[in-house]
Amino acid sequence: MGGKRRRKIIKRIVKRIPSIFICPYCGNRSITIEVNEEINEAFVKCGKCGANDTIKYAPPSEEVDIYNKFMDKYYKKAGPLK
Q: Which helix (H) or strand (E) element contains residue 66?
């Protein structure tokens, strides 16, 4: 005769927004973004290959939005994907 069976507790996994991103030039996860909120500019830099750029953004932007603008700029310069 066993006791009452307990229901298994399921832990929710909370996904966080990343702070280090993948570099399109070298493929490493080494892109960091420094945000200057006073002048609405962000400095995007790869710690591995040294690729960098300055991106202007609108105030309610997150680091992910700035990274996406950096990637759009990269693919516009690189041409269409084949």
A: helix 63-78
pTM over 0.85: no
How wide is the angle at C-alpha 27 spanned by C-alphas 17 and 43, nearest 5°?
55
Q: What is the CATH architecture assignment of 21-78?
A: Single Sheet (2.20)
DSSP 19: S
Domain boundaries, the chain: 21-78
Please state, in angstroms and rounded to a whole number, the distance separating the CA atoms of residues 32 and 42.
Answer: 10
Q: Which H or E run includes 32?
A: strand 29-36
Inform me whether the pLDDT recorded for 82 exceeds 80: no
CA distances from 82 to 54, 75, 76, 78, 79 (A): 27, 12, 13, 11, 9
